[in-house]
Structures are given as C-alpha cells and as structure tokens.
Write the structure tokens for this entry.
Amino acid sequence: MHFYELHEGDDDVFFDVLLFREDEMAAEEFYTVVQSIRRRIQDNHESETLVEAIADELEQDYGFVYVSDDRLTAAVNVSKVEEDNFLADLEPENIDDEPLDFATVYADLEPTDRQLN
C-alpha cells in the first residue's frame, strides 16, 4: 500500500487530503497526473476545496482511495492529561440542525492599546 498527500492553501490556512493506492505511482507521475486534473477542473468542480475535487478524480479514474472524514470509523483524542483523552464525535455539531457551511475559520487580530492594559 502506498500513501500520497495533497496540500492546498497558504501559511495561515491550508487543507490536506490523504490518498492510498495498492500499486505505486512514481512521485513525478503523480505530480503530472495531479496537475493535469487540476488544469481540467480548477474552475469547474462541486467539492468544497480543489484538493478534494482532485482526490475524487484520482479515486474515480486512477485507482486511489481518498481517505476522507466520512470514511472514518473512529477518532480518538490522545493527551498526556487523562481528562483530555476521549472518543471523538464524528458527526459535526450543527446549530439548530443547520449544516455547517465552513471548513476553516481564520482570524488575524491585532491587539489594541486598550486590550494590552
């Protein structure tokens, strides 16, 4: 089994996806295939992120398996602090049963003089 990763974003906000494949694909070939898919779909995809759309295409056409959150069976939070260890809830929390409409929230705040006192 061979593992591959796609990254999207900048230094502040980014998104990664993991894929695996039974047969190895050389890194240079993987790059070429990813770039080909990106050029074809970058302005016309229904996924939330470009890397998710590329991962879907790699799964559909190239024998990859996209390890998405909806495929998780279990997730465990692990910490040295006993109370911080728990089985994570795989269902996203919704407010008033409305679906969440964001993947990441990033805020770059500058403290004011008033906040520093």
